[in-house]
């Protein structure tokens, strides 16, 4: 390896030094806590100085003007001898001004290279003779420019020879001689990208492409942001948000297949090449669908000097202390995006700023100060409102925005009015993120068209609670952010939602757990978190969500004996992650013993569960109970952790254990009554199980980590005359399990597969120990006890 570390940052035309610093430290695996640009530069210089013994490569991509390395915090010069710097630029003068030692010019592709690249992206078979001549001529029109070749080739993929000839004619006759501010060499790229744009399937695909130019250069565009624009601009006549999301993802895939959008390292995000973005802005002007993005100071002056009447979308981004004009005259404006990238300085939105923008449908404000009252001029058309890191006042005016379909609040403290559900009858997505307040469950129930909800719900009590429960509930409310408790009727139930990330505001108010919930939402999952809640009806009010619930966290729930008393073949079948902790009354995680027969005959349950974590459940007797007609299949389970469940005597029945083909990690500790991991003879009602196949081997083919700790009653892994095999085992840790016995066949068969023993101390059972500290000292045979020898395979 030539370099020990590589740091990468994209500069763009208007670089933010703070963003450049952040990209560098992230790619180098470092961290900056300083907020001020100069303080961050000082810290970076110190980090580089302390890393002089390491070979570091710094890559600065897309440099447009001379950059003072000292302002970023990069050490340069022979005296420092810290790192090598590689920069990419389109401008020769940048290399001159920055004193580059070595310059490598990347020329255009030659004819053969260009043709091969075109054929690759167009999917042309080498044996197809019908396209040989025309593909050469099309490749020539792309002037050896990879970006142009990819776009044209992708657009012509699967086209006939006649369509190729039509495309060639369009490329040859494109009238691009008068593109203002574009040099002759760049016009070929513009023509090819315009050609690819024209070949997009559908007006909504072209609109989505143009919209992406609204975001700053090199910006990672969140598909959920694009969904908001799609809903606000009514691109799709979809009957639900979920279907609109699917349609949008299909269009995004088409744009990526056309090489007009790029993937990023983050799932759910895309980006636009800066040249493609320039072409999109140019196309918008030509087609009178103007989108513009202005970055930096001087926004007020820019707004006065330039006529904005033709613009459909405007993005104003300030990376210093900026002032907005008192208003903008934009009668055709549908999209407005205001952002201040510095946390310390916020954009002050004037009271009458929106007065001449009555056609606005989508408004995003990041880092602003505003009164909701200022949005009154948009009441007839505004469909999407996103407020991020905003100081908001006059929240009661939210109810005036009658056409609102998406309301997104992130780090924007606001008191949601209780009557908002009655007023915003068209709302479909409500997002109340971190530090943005909470909402009453009753209010959520009043939004008649709500499909997706993400946020905190207020603490509540249920009518008919005992005085002791009510007193405890009120005492708990004193620790809540707003000290309020909502009284729910006995028959209250949450509305059926398509997507959700819900956290009840419990006494712990666990921000880390809520962050995990939001991460789950970003992955498109459905998540429910209940913490420290007293009323018995707590879980019942969410019953409508169980059919598509994917992630469930329960902690501190009392008065509940099982999570789901009765479920059918659809209930919890989408569940992938289940964490249950500190629920003192819980006896069974899932009880399907009283469930009715399903239409599907023998319904399979929990087949998608990947992760299960149980801790502090003193009354837990069974993890799952199911009648004969139900099959609990744990075929996807990879990780199981059980701790401090003192009433549990076993974990799996034999049939359940045989479905554990993906289990990689099994950790069990501090379970006082646990006798075995797999109960092979009895079911949960202590009825004897008949095993007809005579197979006494339980194979766990994927198990890599096995840890048993402080299990005083554990006798064996499997009950009766069964034994298990773990051919993939890499780590075995057994401590303080005095009654654990195992036959020599099982032990030898499993220990010979151990792949990682060195540098660990394992205590196996009560009668022997292995203490390996030096890999070189290992031999293949060890005397473990006085009764038998064990032969080990090759230890890695």
TrEMBL record:
Domain NB-ARC: residue ranges: 3-122
Keyword annotations: ATP-binding, Leucine-rich repeat, Nucleotide-binding, Plant defense, Repeat
Protein's UniProt keywords contain Nucleotide-binding: yes
Keyword match Transferase: no
GO MF, one annotated term: ADP binding
Cross-referenced PANTHER family: NB-ARC DOMAIN-CONTAINING PROTEIN-RELATED (PTHR33463), RESISTANCE PROTEIN RPS2, PUTATIVE-RELATED (PTHR33463:SF135)
Protein name as annotated: NB-ARC domain-containing protein
Native organism: Citrus x changshan-huyou
């Amino acid at each position: 390896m030539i370099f020990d570390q590589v740091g990468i940052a994209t500069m763009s035309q208007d670089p933010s030094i703070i963003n450049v610093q952040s990209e560098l430290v992230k790619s180098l695996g470092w961290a900056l806590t300083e907020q001020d640009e100069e303080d961050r530069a000082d810290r970076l210089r110190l980090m580089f100085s302390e890393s002089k013994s390491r070979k570091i490569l710094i890559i600065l991509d897309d440099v447009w003007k001379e950059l003072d390395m000292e302002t970023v915090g990069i050490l340069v010069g022979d005296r420092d001898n810290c790192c090598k710097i590689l920069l990419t630029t389109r401008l020769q003068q940048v290399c001159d001004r920055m004193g580059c030692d070595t310059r490598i010019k990347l020329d255009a592709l030659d004819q053969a290279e260009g043709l091969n690249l075109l054929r690759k992206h167009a999917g042309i078979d080498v044996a197809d003779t019908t396209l040989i001549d025309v593909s050469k001529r099309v490749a020539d029109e792309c002037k050896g420019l990879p970006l142009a070749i990819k776009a044209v080739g992708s657009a012509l993929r699967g086209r006939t020879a006649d369509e190729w000839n039509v495309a060639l004619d369009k490329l040859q006759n494109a009238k691009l001689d008068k593109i203002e501010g574009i040099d002759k060499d760049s016009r070929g790229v513009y023509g090819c990208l315009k050609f690819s744009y024209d070949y997009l399937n559908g007006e909504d695909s072209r609109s989505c492409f143009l919209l992406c130019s609204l975001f700053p250069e090199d910006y990672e565009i969140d598909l959920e942001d694009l969904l908001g624009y799609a809903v606000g601009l009514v691109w799709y006549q979809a009957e639900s948000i979920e279907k609109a999301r699917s349609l949008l993802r299909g269009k995004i895939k088409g744009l990526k297949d056309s090489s007009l959008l790029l993937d990023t390292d983050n799932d759910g995000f895309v980006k636009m090449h800066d040249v493609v973005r320039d072409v999109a802005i140019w196309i918008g002007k030509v087609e009178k669908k103007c989108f513009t993005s202005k970055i930096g100071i001087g926004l007020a002056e820019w707004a006065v000097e330039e006529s904005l009447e033709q613009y459909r979308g405007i993005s104003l981004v300030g990376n210093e202390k900026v002032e907005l004009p008192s208003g903008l005259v934009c009668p055709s404006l549908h999209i407005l995006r205001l952002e201040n990238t510095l946390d310390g300085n916020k954009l002050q939105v004037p009271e009458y700023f929106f007065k001449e923008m009555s056609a606005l449908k989508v408004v995003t404000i990041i880092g602003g100060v505003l009164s909701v009252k200022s949005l009154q001029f948009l009441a007839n058309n505004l469909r999407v409102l996103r407020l991020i890191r905003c100081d908001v006042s006059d929240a009661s005016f939210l109810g005036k925005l009658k056409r609102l379909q998406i309301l997104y609040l992130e780090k924007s403290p606001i008191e949601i009015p209780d009557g908002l559900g009655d007023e915003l009858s068209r709302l479909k997505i409500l997002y109340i993120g971190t530090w943005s307040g909470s909402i009453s469950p009753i209010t959520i129930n009043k939004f008649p068209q709500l499909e997706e909800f993400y946020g905190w719900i207020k603490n509540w009590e249920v009518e008919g609670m005992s005085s002791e429960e009510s007193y405890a509930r009120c005492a708990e409310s004193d620790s809540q952010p707003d000290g309020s408790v909502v009284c729910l009727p006995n028959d209250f139930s949450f509305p059926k939602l398509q997507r959700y990330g819900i956290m009840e505001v419990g006494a712990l108010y666990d921000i880390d757990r809520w962050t995990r919930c939001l991460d789950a939402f970003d992955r498109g999952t459905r998540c429910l978190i209940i913490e420290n809640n007293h009323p018995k009806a707590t879980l019942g009010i969410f019953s409508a969500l169980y059919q598509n619930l994917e992630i469930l966290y329960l902690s501190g729930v009392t008065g509940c004996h099982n999570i789901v008393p009765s479920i059918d073949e659809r209930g919890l079948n989408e569940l992938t992650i289940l964490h249950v902790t500190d629920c003192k009354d819980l006896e069974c995680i899932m009880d399907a013993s009283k469930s009715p027969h399903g239409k599907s005959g023998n319904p399979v349950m929990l087949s998608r569960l990947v992760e299960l974590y149980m801790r502090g459940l003193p009354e837990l007797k069974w993890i799952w109970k199911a009648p004969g007609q139900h099959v609990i299949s744990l075929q996807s389970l990879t990780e199981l952790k059980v701790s401090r469940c003192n009433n549990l005597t076993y974990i799996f029945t034999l049939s359940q254990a045989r479905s554990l083909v993906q289990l990689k990690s099994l950790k069990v500790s501090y379970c006082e009554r646990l006798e075995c991991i797999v109960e092979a003879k009895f079911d949960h009602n202590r009825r004897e199980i008949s095993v007809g196949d005579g197979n006494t081997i339980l194979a766990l083919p994927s198990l890599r980590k096995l840890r048993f700790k402080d299990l005083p009653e554990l006798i064996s892994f499997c009950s009766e005359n069964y034994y298990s095999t773990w051919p993939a085992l890499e780590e075995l840790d057994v401590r303080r399990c005095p009654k654990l016995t195992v036959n020599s066949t099982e032990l030898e068969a499993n220990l010979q597969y151990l792949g990682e023993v060195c540098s660990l101390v394992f205590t196996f059972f009560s009668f022997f120990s292995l203490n390996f500290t030096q890999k070189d000292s290992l031999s293949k045979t060890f005397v473990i006890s006085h009764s038998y020898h064990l032969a080990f395979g090759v230890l890695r």
